[in-house]
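Reader question, answered in our methods column.
A reader sent in the components of a multi-part assembly and asked whether the whole thing could be modeled at once rather than chain by chain. We filled in our standard form and ran it. Here is what they sent:
COMPLEX SIZE: two components
ENTRIES:
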Amino acid sequence: MAIVHEFEYFKPERIEDVIKLLSEYKGKARLLAGGTDLVVRIKDELESPAAVIDIKGIEELKKLEFREGKLHIGALVTFTDLIDSDIVKKQFPLFWESSKTIASPGIRNRATLAGNICSGVPSLDSGPALLVYEADIIVRGAEGERVIPALNWFLGPRRTALKEEEFVREIVFSLPAKNHGGSYIKLGRYKGEDLAQVGLGILALEGNEYRLAFCAVGPVPSRAKKIEALLNGKPLTDSLLETAKRLVSEEISPITDVRATKEYRVHVAKIMLERGIRAAVERIDGNGPAYGERLI
Amino acid sequence: MEEFKFIGKSVKRLDEKEKVTGAAKYVDDIEFGPNLLYAEIIESPHPHALIKSIDTSEAEKIEGVVKVVTGKDFPYKFGLYMKDRYIFAQDKVRFIGEQVAAVIARDPRTAQKAAKLVKVEYELLQPVFDPIEALKEDAVIIHPDLGNYPHVPWFFPKGGTNITHRLKLRKGNTEKGFKDADFILEDTYRVPRYAHCCLETHIAVGLLDYSGRLTIWASTQSPYTQRNLFADALAPLGFSHKDIRVIAPYVGGGFGGKAGVTMEIIAAALATTVKGHPVKVMWRRDQEFYNTYMRQQVVTKIKVGVKKDGIITAFEMANYWDAGPYAEYGANVVNASGLSATGPYRIQNVTIDSYCIYTNLPAAGPYRGFGYSEMSFSVESHMTRIANAIGIDQVEFRRKNGIKEGDTVAYGAPMNPNGLLEAIDKVADEINWGEKEESKDPNKAIGKGLSIFWKAPAMPPNVTTSAFIKFNEDGSLNILVSGMELGQGYLTVMAQVATEILTVPIEKIRVELPDTDRNPYHWQTVASHVTWASGNAVKRAALEMRDKIFEVVHAAYHYDKDSLYLEDEKVKCKLHSSFELPLKDFVINGIQTKDGTYRGGAIVGSGSFMPEFTSAKQDPETSQGGHPNVHYTVGAGAVKIEVDKQTGKIRILKAVEAVDAGKAINPRNVEHQIIGGLLQGLATVLCEDMRFDENGKILNPNFTDYKIPTFLDIPDEVVPIIVEVPQPDGPFGARGIAEHTMIPAAPIIANAVEDAVGVRVKAMPITAEKIAMAIADEKKEVDDFLMIMKK
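And here is the structure of the entire assembly that came back:
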């Protein structure tokens, strides 16, 4: 299938040129990194930008660096880069685990984290990791840089805090101050590549501190604040878990579509909460199932 | 037992290296030169509407557009068994996605752009999507002229209704059978639509050259049938069969979806409007879903009575098939599967009614299994429930009622030799039938399921095939046949059959892909009949060549023909052990005699085959009296699964299937068919889940939401088992096994799920969601049918 829509194509080598082009096209330009979302949407005529700015020629956006307890992920870093990174696997294992559930190897070789979060879809597998690690998104615009906490990033389905003439330069993950374990569980229809019907990322920190975030069960990926409030400060017990599971339906608002019914999503979200939190807690001390192992 | 040199050997596939290295050419790989044009189709956005007007003027203005074609350019009907289909919609559209017009342009982009400018004005009509709704008296009639449509004599369309065919089968006295029964179970099962999902989407390129020759290159299972239907439909334009040539390069998957004619006729028709220019029509993935064939949806009502000892006394069934708006092929699925809907059981009293019903969902038709998979889901689910209800082990129940050679099938013909009982025993043994196993994980339960199956080729009674074989100077062979290599290993098997007679090493044989100008007639590569039928034709051609060889040797050396035999590419003589004459020395240039003259000449062979015992002359009220099927292939499948009681997810620990190949000409190919077919069947029961909105629009015509299993999803272990009870009229005893291998998949899963967690799922697919929600809601039976989604 050919792309019918006509657009201008630019491949700048400097960030300044990207900013200039974005200002020039006033929201009518789209950035191209991996293209796994954008190209398909242009083909399907869901988007018709006047200009496509290919940023793949900008070397500094390819950097993936860990310095002073912070992981800097440039806009061109792909999911394969993340999965292949020992730092990500060792220091941010929940993020590593969720990255492995995204699409298929072929797509992950092209698709970038920055592109992923800019798509802002409700089923975003990287969403829970961003939210529980409380990452920062560094965006550049004509007026310089600003930092948008991941917690403020998602505004609605395919809507983010990014302004029209801005772009994501990098995403920064800070290492949690305490020892931690995590888990990301994804409900798909089979083991192959699928879009999440429910995604749940859980970060368990030493000292009974918990951070939980869902995706695919509401308009945006979001933290489960009520469940966190219930759990925080308490050691994990069966009865506490049962209470937490009862709160799941208050935290999420899934829809019924071709992928699953809302009833099944709620049902499995509770199972995921139970299995995920147990795994996350066990993993704090290096016990429990290995990262990457399927929990559902 | 006869010793074979080439038969029963897993020789390397002839097409292996070509396909692995990427050398194999598919239609889209062929260069058609700078004159090539591209077509883009204008499709109906409505499921049922009258076409009021079509305005092509804006599209025609676009630079690069060569022509815009609409239905009025081709007011011709076509169809395989019934003419109810159009090249382009005429006055009416009947499903979302139906072709209304086409833009032909110099490049695909221009064609797409211009297609958007074609304006079609519609007047909406009431659509109907449910086959049972479509039977109601006040239902909208999709084909008001149905009563006038030409069709084969074994179809019984009812004009003025949406019933395009009704199969009626009566054997014995069902009423009495139920009276005699100690236990009766009655229920309804539903199977949704499915898509073939070939890796290669449909593609056809048509070219009308200046000599008046119309050539079509197509990804097809049916080059000759396509030529026949093209010639028939385009006859008003002056074409006859000899003017039309269909060339069939390799195919990236068929599964029934590339049988008969669907979109290929668009390429043929469009080519006639742009003489000298090839026109390419290639389906996108979404078009592949909605505008070829789909597998039909069916609602099955079934009632079976048994004695306490498990003997079946009566079988009653009604099938309501949703064929979509064009049933030219689908009605034969209904017919064939209806005749055999009992499955491989010996039953004295049978009542079957199968209705082929028009709806406004996309056209449905042949799909691997040809209706038997759908019947198998209901019958084999039902038989398991009955056995369990009366306390007889399922395997015992099936052994007791399983059909044997000489038993009478439901339409009165005798059953052929078969290894059904052996297949049952072998699969039961392989999964340790009768041994209850427990999972180590308290959240999980293990269950086992078993099912038997049969299938006969569904073909017209006088279906025919032929073969040419020719020797080359070096004694190598070219075999020309028109069966299609669909990945099943057809080419290799034909070489094995030929050379079992001619003794030429496989490496010295080429089997050519179909070209209707060069290769002789073969009906279509469907019905799992090519090994059997085409194999017989090839064998006859080889025997004819052997006769000619002996004739020449006799003429030159005066040895008695009966004393001659072939071995290792040489003619030898039983009476003169020193005599050996290499084939290459004379099969082209003959044998020189003492006086310097020659005997012989190029040795060629031809063979044709048609079953001469079949007939479709059954009584329409009972289906008795004919002999519609050549024979059945039987088998059994079983599975051991682990079900997560919380999430409902199924892991297949072991899947096993035994099929009676008669004689496995290439055992490795048979094993691969078993594995592949079983996995395809498991996909339909576990993954594939087609959905439509309330307006009949498919919601998941893509692999994002229509799921085909990946390597991660295949069973932990698959065990293929070959049973060999020879087919007397098959080449070296062989019969077909291809479609069959997917038939038991759905019921073995349904049966295993019930065994594991006590939930009976009566509507496919059997998803994790259905199982988990049933367990959570403490339901024992699940009827949820989700194919058409309510708002």
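What stands out: The two ends of chain B are 64 Å apart (CA to CA). The mean pLDDT of chain B is 97.
Send us your own complexes using the same form.
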